[in-house]
TrEMBL record:
<keyword id="KW-0347">Helicase</keyword>
<dbReference type="Pfam" id="PF04326">
    <property type="entry name" value="SLFN_AlbA_2"/>
</dbReference>
<dbReference type="GO" id="GO:0004386">
    <property type="term" value="F:helicase activity"/>
</dbReference>
<keyword id="KW-0378">Hydrolase</keyword>
<feature type="domain" description="Schlafen AlbA-2">
    <location>
        <begin position="21"/>
        <end position="137"/>
    </location>
</feature>
<dbReference type="Pfam" id="PF13749">
    <property type="entry name" value="HATPase_c_4"/>
</dbReference>
<protein>
    <submittedName>
        <fullName>ATP-dependent DNA helicase RecG</fullName>
    </submittedName>
</protein>
<dbReference type="InterPro" id="IPR007421">
    <property type="entry name" value="Schlafen_AlbA_2_dom"/>
</dbReference>
<keyword id="KW-0067">ATP-binding</keyword>
<keyword id="KW-0547">Nucleotide-binding</keyword>
Amino acid sequence: MTINVVAVSDADVAKALRLEEGHFVDLKATAVAPGKLTRSLAAFANADGGELFVGIAEGQAGQGHRWEGFANAEAANGHIQAFESVFPLGGDHRYEFLSAESQTGLILHIEIDKSASIKKAVDGKIYKRRGAQNLPVTTEEDIRNLELAKGVVSFESETIQYPIEYLTNSEAIITFLIDLIPSADPEPWLKKQLLVLGSLPTVAAVLLFSDEPQAALPKRSGVKIYRYRTTLAEGTRDTLDFDPITIEGCLYRQIYSAVAKVVEVVEASRAVNADGMSTINYPKEAIHEIVTNAVIHRDYSIADDIHVRIFDNRIEIESPGRLPAHITPENILDQRYSRNGAIVRYINKFPDAPNKDVGEGLNTAFGAMRALKLKNPQIEERESSVLVTIRHERLGSPESICLEYLRDNDTIANAKLRELTGITSENTAKEVFKRLMKMNAIERVPGLGGNKAAYQKGQNFATQLAAVSGTN
């Protein structure tokens, strides 16, 4: 397969020579042995992906990098052959040569995606990228943790010491078996589905069919809900509205109970409309789908609960474990991979299954947010968890945004309100100002008219702001 040669500008050359090695970038001279370079390729694939530039040499202290590429494409054949043993050409990973009129030689640029499986360098060892280092993964425990993180193996299939009669006589399995076709008795069915191996149930079986899985899996099978009266980045004990609520039970009940409690807390918040104060109109579908996604796709090998933090301007849903296999925040809506295949499959067989459209949950959540003209959820992959953030009050109520902006600023103009809220029409923004002026929350700034018109705090500003913040 031919590797394309891409001509780059002098500006791009300058950018390339300013690159610094880090978690997503590695720079190597052509003199470095090809086999050694496969460590970088494998390390990127086993972590979060990255880019390798072969032909950029480190300069002397303070002199920057140097472009020292291959004389021609054939001169890179030894490197290509070594790289193909790890990542064949034509796969999901991209190879190209970079050329520039002002520079001599070709840079080999390789983009490596996060892999679905564990990759080894040509020395047979496993590496993982951490910062600017390719760290060897050598111990059985570290290899096992990498397998769990990638979803190569799943903790759901592990067996645990737990009396099988706690499953066969549970309310959860009775609810499940009502609609099962063909009908079956609990114990033979569990064994047939390999959810009980010998006399021991799997983690998936306990999570799905025990009425109290937390007894067997403490600190790794519940949902905790917090309410913080703040818009700050972090909640504190002082801003905590009530003691955290813990939702337990089988996964099916957990999902519906957690969603109901989150919706209840969110709707207790207040927003401004033309008639005064009202509850927030928030997409319940988004809450349901994101909570469901967290419960069924989290990494149950990590001893931590799912945390739902409700702030004045957002909801954060943090689930233990990184995204599995090749899934990233960028491709999560388009790609499919299930860490917990048994959980996903069997919870879909419950009456009124919480994951009706398997594989479409987050897409449904995004659609529900857009239907209410709210920003898309934000998905962030952290060191050992995934955080999904959805905005509510600030984005759902332009009036609230206006008042909270004026709390910290002297005036607000039409353009600023449209910038903050995503409103595209000047007339729509004017209607927001009219509603707030009707309540005497704001007033026009004297002497400013036309396209210079601006608004400032009105006589009832403090009262309406306190109502929005829920402090009155």
